[in-house]
Specification:
Layout (H helix, E strand, L loop, with lengths): L3 E7 L4 E5 L2 E15 L5 E13 L14 E14 L5 E16 L48
Parallel strand pairs: 4-6
Antiparallel strand pairs: 1-3, 1-5, 2-3, 3-4, 5-6
Amino acid sequence: MIKLQVIGHLGKDCLVNSVNGKSVINFTVAHSERYKDSQGVQNERTTWVECAYWTDKTAISPYLKKGTQVFVEGTPEARHFTRNDGTSGASLALRVLNVQLLGTKPEGSSNGATQQSNNNYQPSAAQPQQSNYNSVPAANEVTEPIDDLPF
């Protein structure tokens, strides 16, 4: 068996259908990664995966909304087709065996990348103030750069 694992964001809300008495949840996942080409120019590549989750456990479907970050794994299938203009194309489909919710896309985010919210960290009144451990900086005092994650 070939297994494919994808972490990405949903491109649109899922659709729940019934086929021959069985439930299927259909959704698309976009996985984006950044890379530098041979000239050192930063590029971004997005791969779309069409997912079909055949399950009677459709309780997850209300949470599969556009922008939600998910981890899906299953068996892949490459599909080839001919576009209306006569050119050939290909798509990647996944028969999902497992899906896990990882989070939601922040408001105002325009691409598939998850934005870091640590820059706006503000300790709440419910959190204890810094105690005798003065050698450990608080989260809002960390000055190291935050790495750009490819997803």
